[in-house]
Specification:
mainly alpha; 362 residues; elongated; 3 domains
């Protein structure tokens, strides 16, 4: 079924090449790329992309602008001579180059707002543009509305050309067709955020709520729930949710750098040893290392005895017990901390305690 669709796209390219051509539509690629540069500058000014992303996007657009200018200067060449390699490129699709692999090419960044708008650009030299391909995908889906791969093509290609509304709708169809794949719901939510320049709208909240209801422990759902709290002005709530997510995540999980960055912005940083202490611990035997940790824990407990209104200290103590495999002691430390810290500081302790009591893997 999908190969029939790919053949359709390839034939569309071939027919287009021997038809009227794009020039009659009045499209000037140089103006298109100049408009892209303006869009990147606007995104950088609004904070949608950072300076490094904007620089990379500008370099890519400028490269394409120079290439387009060169093509225009060579326009006097016989148009018929240029059609042959283009037709061969179209036939390459028929022979097995899947369209949906092209949309994930490394040259296009994936973060919302940083994707270069490419509606009028050929997917491959001489082939159909993104707009033409998207129209072919839509036509295919009208005939095959249950085709998961077709919806995936439409979702990712729409996102690539910054049509986040169409992308969100396509990801919603994917979530309907494959409800067990929570990644579709996450990408639907992210497309809706991109439509609102990173803000979580009421409609996006409904999607997030559905994700959390279906997969309450999904890391993306918990991360965005924390972001929703922060955008609502509830920094303590965001801190509690993100800290609980960090506590149950593998330190090498791909979302940890972003999560730790958000926590640092809220004044939370993971406890660390000095370089000398780290080197000393690395050279210790297992027995000496255990004794060293226990001595640090005793000092921490003594500090908490004199200053019990310290939620970070109780969290550190609980994590230390957990690192030694004593979950019961970690729970006891959190319960003791909840009894001693002031009410407005209890959110992070309660979130960690709830996490320990409901997650058997910890």
């Amino acid at each position: 079924m999908i190969w029939l669709f790919l053949i359709l796209v390839a034939l569309t390219a071939v027919l287009f090449l021997f038809g009227k051509g794009r020039a009659e539509a009045g499209f000037d690629p140089l103006d298109h790329y100049r408009a892209q540069l303006d869009e990147i500058a606007e995104d950088e000014a609004r904070g949608v992309v950072d300076a490094n992303e904007a620089k990379a996007a500008r370099l890519e657009v400028e490269r394409r602008l120079l290439k387009a200018a060169k093509r225009q200067s060579e326009a006097k060449l016989d148009r018929g001579d240029k059609r042959i390699p283009a037709v061969l490129a179209g036939l390459a699709v028929i022979s097995g180059v899947a369209l949906y692999a092209v949309f994930g090419r490394p040259g296009l960044p994936e973060k919302p707002g940083a994707v270069i708008s490419s509606r009028h650009e050929a997917i491959q030299e001489g082939g159909p543009t993104y707009d033409e391909a998207i129209k072919a995908v839509r036509k295919h889906l009208r005939a095959e509305p249950e085709d998961v791969k077709g919806w995936e093509v439409l979702a990712k290609s729409s996102r690539a050309v910054r049509d986040f509304s169409a992308a969100a709708n396509a990801f919603a169809e994917l979530a309907r067709l494959q409800p067990e794949n929570h990644g579709w719901r996450v990408q639907q939510f992210e497309a809706m955020m991109a439509m609102a320049s990173g803000q979580i709208t009421p409609a996006a909240r409904l999607v997030l709520g559905a994700l959390i209801e279906d997969a309450p422990d999904h890391p993306a759902g918990q991360y965005y729930l924390g972001l929703l709290r922060r955008q609502s002005g509830d920094d303590e709530g965001a801190k509690a949710i993100w800290q609980a997510l960090a506590d149950r995540s593998d330190p090498n999980a791909p979302w940890m750098p972003t999560l730790n960055d958000q926590l640092r912005k809220l004044g939370v940083s993971p406890p660390s040893l000095s370089g000398d202490q780290m080197a000393a611990v690395a050279n210790m035997s297992d027995e000496d290392r255990k004794a060293f940790i226990e001595s640090m824990m005793e000092r921490l407990k003594a500090r908490l005895d004199s200053n019990p209104d310290d939620p970070d200290g109780w969290l550190m103590l609980a994590r230390s017990y957990l690192s030694m495999g004593d979950k019961a002691a970690a729970i006891a430390a959190l319960e003791q901390g909840l009894a001693k810290v002031s009410a407005e500081k209890q959110a992070s302790l309660q979130a960690f305690l709830d996490n320990l009591q409901t997650n058997p893997d910890l």
